[in-house]
Input
Amino acid sequence: MDETSYKKGYKYITVVYDMDKNRVIWVHEGNGYDIFSKFCRLLTPEERACIEIVAGDGASWIDSCCKEFFPNATRCIDFFHVTQWINKALDEVRINTATKAKQDYKKLKDEYIKTEKEAAIAIEKSRQLYFDTLKELEQMPRRGRPSEHKKELIAFVEEYEATQTPTDLASKKRGRPKNIQLSQEHEASLKSLSDKLGTFKGAKFALGHNPENCTDNQIEKLQLIRNNYPDLYRAYQLKESLRLILHMKDYEQAYIELVRWIDDAKCSNLTPMKQLAEKIQTIHLKNIMNAIKYQANSAKSESTNTTIKGFINLARGFKKISNMIALIYLKCSDIVIPLRNRPIPSKDYLASTCTCHC
Output
């Protein structure tokens, strides 16, 4: 079973599929335990006992319905949703890493600006003191033996003039200093960080693609991430490891690798990965292993959801929800409507294809 949105504002429908025959057998507006339990109560005890596998996402209300209505069924989690979880965790790591890198860049730039401002203020104070000293020397008498104070003033003027260029000495403008100009060393340091920040441009697509499907530019982007941001690349490696585990056929080896992956994710010091590992270990480990063992998933239901959304877009919406449900039954189930220009199906055919909603 699966749920799909049909309208903005969290409007959902619950769709139940027959995985063996790849057909829709039940549709209802809404989602959750109360809605899915309505379908379960439509089945007889014999029909419930015959159901062997229930595949869906990780919603807890699906687990509750399985325990209550399908005692012989094995609960499986679709690999598509597990991949969604790891991609979401990877994207959170990417956003956190990019945010921290931008904050570090801004903090370093502010420190450099502050340092340059303090240096400019100190230079301006020395310059002002130089002109004040010259003015004071002009007011002092020129005849007679100079006093110790005058000697100190002359020494300061000579020392200051030795460190300045003739152009700086010729300019007697005072007041607020000009715009702060960073030194070449500080500019080079900021440019290096700015180039590293450019690594995040297009990184979401490179990290989300499988390695075998990456373009040359995306491979180069992954290499830059590996060199500049090892934590983000570590999250990417965890994502790829989990993806490979989900495609394994050997149940025992897959269990060993999944437990090892959980331990690695917990030791990664990456909060989103640690949270996902805890979620899988405490809630979904058994259901994921069931999906690996029986190779059961809801991939066909996801493709049918795409078809349903195509109907909705083509119709530009429906005035009544019942009209949309009727169209889903017509297009995605095995209902046969006898028409004049079509042969009428036999009773045996109708009996063999009858479902619970008939």
Remarks:
- The two ends are 18 Å apart (CA to CA).
- The chain has 15 helices and five strands.
- The CA atoms of residues 206 and 215 lie 8 Å apart.
